[in-house]
Design goal:
With about 400 residues, the chain is mostly helical. Helix content is about 70%, strand content about 0%.
Length: about 400
């Protein structure tokens, strides 16, 4: 009679499943369904992407830009259905890189993997650069008035400190990251949803007609596509649940569910937050021309509607959500770097693929990804430009991955 616990039996089964792909179980399996969903959801993090590029959408076609949200969400859900299926077939670290390897060729997957890796690195940079947009006004509300939210130098300092902190947390293990992520996701879902409902109920300055109000800006195919960059930047990264498959229990069943739940959850929460923020703008023309012509971001809308203490709480909640988004994006990019190194597709692959026997994390991969994410800060000109570059690369890699899936079908 076996004396092994059910948990031990599941762990052995998952390890044997991984061995079929030629890999040894080195990473620690500690993520359940909610943790897997939380990591994918916090990668998407509606609050983060909306804070980064809300002004872009607003200054391009006014309130009409909210219609880019359902368009992108519908398209991404179709992609997520493909990715969920791939997650059940190939539960290994690397998602798109691994799927293209098994369904196409090593050359094709090498090309796709490199594009996806740089997209992930740029996304890390963009998101840590977004945190100051919410955190600095929150710290000002707490009495730290020496910080200037509009100063690129101040934003850069906060972003670099954030990058160091999330790197250290990722080095100390996915379980620690998961605990922080789970807590942060709950705060993001409740905080964004509750505050958005408050804006809708008590600070309705524009009315529902704002969704058809372009404030005189021309709305055409080109301008609509330009405004769509905000939604495109938000709704990606749901394949993170697949990327962390080697650290997920029963990944063939749990990872696909997490992929789909993350897209649906982000669409609902982000949609309500977007609508509440647009409706709460006191004057649409002022918001479009504000901040020196760059347009208002959600922090400006929050500060214009709430008393100082409540605006500070809201911004702290959003800052926490952005922070856990930074954590999960770095975690996913590290696993991609690890997966590619394990297949010897990166320079110095032997170093990046080493896993700490005590921490069960690829420490050197953590460090190199963080260092590469810091490079764009040498010529920093704001989070928006980096976000647009990351979005272009990520969708190119998704396109390459879906081409292989369609060919296989």
């Amino acid at each position: 009679m076996s004396t092994e616990s059910p948990a031990d039996q599941h762990a052995q089964r998952d390890a044997a499943d991984l061995a079929r792909f030629g890999y040894k179980q080195e990473l620690k399996r500690s993520l359940g369904l909610f943790s897997s969903f939380a990591v994918a959801f916090s990668y998407i993090s509606p609050s983060t992407g909306i804070f980064t590029l809300f002004a872009l959408g607003l200054t391009t076609i006014g309130g009409v830009f909210i219609w880019t949200w359902p368009v992108v969400a519908a398209g991404q859900f179709l992609v997520a259905l493909n990715f969920a299926e791939m997650s059940s077939h190939y539960p290994v670290a690397g998602s798109v890189f691994q799927w293209t390897k098994y369904m196409s060729s090593r050359t094709y997957s090498w090309f796709t993997g490199w594009i996806y890796l740089f997209a992930g690195i740029l996304t890390v940079t963009a998101v840590v650069a977004t945190l100051p947009i919410a955190l600095i006004p929150a710290l000002n509300g707490l009495g730290w008035h020496s910080l200037n939210a509009a100063s690129l130098h101040t934003q850069l300092t906060v972003a670099l400190i954030t990058l160091v902190v999330i790197t250290v947390l990722n080095i100390y293990g996915v379980r620690l990251v998961a605990i922080i992520n789970n807590t942060g996701v709950i705060f993001e879902i409740l905080g964004m949803f509750v505050f958005a409902l408050i804006l809708l109920a008590f600070h309705n300055h524009q009315g529902i007609k704002v969704v058809t109000n372009s404030a005189g800006l021309h709305v055409g195919p080109a301008s609509f596509l330009a405004a769509m960059f905000m939604s495109l930047f938000v709704i990606y990264g749901f394949d993170t649940a697949s990327t962390l498959a080697e650290e997920t229990k029963d990944p063939r069943r749990q990872a696909p569910k997490a992929v789909l739940y993350a897209v649906v959850g982000a669409f609902i929460i982000g949609g309500v937050f977007l609508l509440g923020t647009l409706i709460a703008i006191p004057n649409l023309h002022t918001a479009i021309t504000g901040n020196g012509g760059l347009g208002w971001n959600p922090a400006n809308v929050i500060e214009a509607n709430f008393p100082s203490w409540l605006a500070t709480i809201y911004l702290l909640v959003v800052s926490a959500a952005i922070f856990v988004c930074c954590l999960s994006i770095l975690a996913a990019t590290i696993r991609l770097c690890f997966g590619m190194s394990r297949d010897n597709t990166l320079p110095f692959s032997k170093t990046w693929s080493k896993v700490s026997p005590t921490l069960h994390t690829p420490v050197f991969a953590c460090i190199i990804v963080a260092l590469l994410a810091a490079v764009p800060f040498l010529k920093y000109s704001g989070a928006g430009i980096i976000a647009i570059a990351a979005t272009g690369l990520i969708y190119f890699s998704y396109f390459l991955g879906n081409l292989v899936v369609m060919r296989a079908r």
